[in-house]
Here is the input.
Amino acid sequence: MDAIRCQGVCKDYRVGFWRRRVRILHDLELTVRAGETFGYLGPNGAGKTTTIKILLGLLHPTAGCAWLCGRDASRPEARAAAGYLPETPTFYDYLTGEEFLAFMARLAGLARSVAREQIPALLDRVGLSGAGSRQLRKYSKGMLQRIGMAQALLGNPALVILDEPMSGLDPIGRKEIRDIMVSLRKEGRTVFFSSHIIPDVEMLCDRVGILLGGRLARVGRLDELLGTEIDSVEVTLAGLPPEAAATDGALAPPLVQGDRVQLRLRAEAEVDALLRRTLAAGGRILSVVPHRRTLEEIFLAEVAERGRR
Amino acid sequence: MRRVLAIALMTFTEAVRDRVLYTILVFALAMIGSSAVLVTISVGGEGRIVKDLGLACITLFGLFIAVFIGIRLVSREIERRTVLLLLSRPVGCGAFLVGKFIGLALTLLVNVGAMALGLVLLARMLEGEWTPPLLLAGGFAFLELTILTAFSILFATFSTPTLSTVFTLLVFVIGRLSRDLVAFASQFDSLSLHVTASAIYYTLPNLSRFTLGSLGAGGPLPSEATLLLTAAYGLGYLTAVLALATAIFQRRDFQ
Here is the structure.
């Protein structure tokens, strides 16, 4: 069974004084399989949060349908299997971390005894075990994000939906959230998270969807998107005059630093010829580094392509 | 039902931690207490002055709580987006609003109860005898306030806090005067005036039904059937208002 399915989902908002209709999501077709970590990538305003809110029944789609774990996403019972961390979450300031989690546990339908077991364990898991009795108004931004993550994990949901979980966090906070996401994957849970931080997506995801202007531009496994072919090869040589290193296959002019020359070549055949020439001329080969396309390059290429259209 | 009670308890906790509530309550008790001063400058009917003023205070300050705290608690959930967390759980819009309503009604019950008890004690001190009907009058004032709470929740689901306050206060004023409005319209031959007055009378709650001020002041006790009918009318009306609020809230987008 698919953890998430969107079929022809469109969303219009009415904006301005004349209530002009603006389409935010265009005919979205998306499937997230159970147990996978899916990164929903897109620039600000692409429609990532809108998609998530439709999945959670917080927004009504203008057209199309969405399902969570096989259930109509507009029905409250569909959300029983999901945990959700909103973007920049706000909580009840006057509650302590433990009181807040106890309240959310009751909303999740957990028995009191189960909640009593889970709350200390979750506080420990998100690194807040010493702060459970402190009021939320005294939490830092990173701590709020972590308590938000803890409430999303209450009841061990099969599906965890995280909206920009790393936004606004310092490098340590980001690593902690990333570690939790990795552990969720190991536990076999489905993680659907939106982000515009590409290295995070590249590091964590099984599959990626790129959303641009409300349209799903690309979707697939990371290795499918990145490809296995080598995009270019970076060669660093020494003890060779720059003119000897000149080659037609260079993607950019050679970079010279002292007696070192750095070149970026397109084809592997040109690399072989250059290396042979270098050795014949008495030069040294310092490094040969193959480069594949990064997700960032794919993402930027998609954005540029959309800009041209 | 567990989820509804969880939201109700949270709303009650949030309300009792609000300093505004205590300010209103202390001020109301001070007003009721200060009515004893009026007794010293009046000739005859001392108990009646205290009871009338006390019941008016219960309604007035209860109205403040129902309108200002009620609207604030619902609007704040939406403005601060804590509602996103609540509704992302298997909680329906109806459960959310009913939970909010019960929490607010509980807050009102505690406050109206405190004010009514204060009034009964004051009347006992002045008259030397207990006046249990005052508690009945307080109970009907509470029912009237719960209807206004339901209206404040209804308006908070689709409009701004300021507009919601204005709308709820208008419901209170018109609801209190609707019977007089119909009587006033009957003195004229204008069909449109009759239709308008009747439309207001039948659409908005007839809040004057819940005013048992004369009872508190030693007037005749309404029949049991009248009291039960009034209570049923109140419960039916607030159920209808909450159902309407739920229908509107369900259609709402939380951006």
Remarks:
- Chain A has two domains: 2-226, 232-291.
- Chain A touches chain B at residues 13, 53, 56-60, 76-80, 82, 84, 86, 89-92, 94, 103-104, 106-109, 151 (CB under 8 Å).
- The longest strand of chain A covers residues 2-15.
- The longest helix of chain A spans residues 171-186.
